Amino acid sequence: QLRLVESGGGLVQPGGSLRLSCAGSGRNFDAHYMGWFRQAPGKDREGLAAISSSGAATIYADSVKGRFTISKDNDKNTMYLQMNSLKVEDTAVYYCAAYYSGRYSIEPTPVLVRDEFDYWGQGTQVTVSA
Residue 83 and residue 52: Cα distance in Å, rounded? Predict the structure, then answer.
């Protein structure tokens, strides 16, 4: 079992930056692939970025590529999402998620498939507005 808690959301102006954190408690944090998703009102939950258990491999959705950066610090049991050049359309509730993968010597590329993820945080609101 892995419990996830997001933090760092808030109100920011267009063009601004925020860094979200996802703190994990439980066993084997370093053996979990993790990801960030978001859901805007009236829309489906969208996968944004995912990272391998060691943090070496990442994948991004086209909508955030070049603006958002996912990272993972296994010593601190924390995953991050650095969000730059924020747009009004980035407004949503942001969720972190994880699934147990074990530890690989050669890590498969992460995937942004919602059903792959077993553990979810409660979400943090990000609002981009002037």
Answer: 19
